[in-house]
Write a structure and sequence with these properties.
By secondary structure, the chain is an all-alpha fold. It has 9 helices and no strands. The longest helix has 28 residues.
């Protein structure tokens, strides 16, 4: 290791907070927010409850990358250049290499909806779509070192086995009464009592 463990954890935490602040600043500026308010947005995002609560866990790094992805999508709409594709690729790779596939999926869904909304609002732009495709493909290629082992391990999980067994039995849907019963058991657990 380059640093002893306590110092390395402090460095990673500080770097995550700095990346969060810079990412949100860039995203805010991309949407026309004045610099002083963009600084406040960056500080609020990096020192907000979500980032601070998960600091030291992989989801904090993914949380730092989502505003960068927002910035990259907005820049792709505004300037469909190779630089925009590169920023988009870095944002995708950061999100995927963050170690939290669920956060990467949520970021991807949000980025896709944002892109569609901005394209509809600003008019159809073929160049922006091409830049988005290139940047996303490059980012996925860079992040595949994290994604491919996850996809390899997924079929070996208990959740996957249970779902595959359920689907193989031809039970692709539950009757409404069974679904409500499961919902009641899983959402209102303490209202129904706790089994010992």
């Amino acid at each position: 290791l380059l640093l002893p463990l306590p110092q390395s954890l402090a460095f990673v935490s500080a770097a995550t907070l700095a990346l969060s602040a810079v990412s949100m600043y860039l995203a805010s500026r991309a949407f026309g927010v004045r610099p002083e308010f963009a600084l406040f947005a960056g500080a609020a995002w990096s020192y907000g409850a979500f980032q601070f609560f998960w600091l030291g866990w992989p989801i904090a790094l993914a949380g730092a990358g989502i505003p960068l992805l927002i910035f990259a999508v907005k820049r792709t709409i505004d300037e469909a250049t190779n630089g925009s594709a590169l920023i988009l690729a870095v944002a995708w790779a950061l999100l995927m290499l963050g170690g939290n596939p669920e956060a990467a999926l949520m970021g991807a869904l949000f980025a896709g909806l944002l892109f569609l909304g901005l394209v509809v609002h600003s008019g159809s732009r073929l160049a922006a779509l091409k830049t988005l495709f290139i940047g996303t493909a490059l980012g996925l290629a860079l992040g595949s070192i994290q994604l491919l082992p996850f996809l390899d391990a997924l079929p070996q999980t208990a959740e996957y086995s249970a779902r595959a067994e359920h689907n193989a039995a031809g039970q692709l849907a539950l009757p409404p009464s069974d679904a409500l019963g499961l919902l009641r058991e899983n959402v209102l657990t303490f209202a129904l009592g706790v089994d010992e």
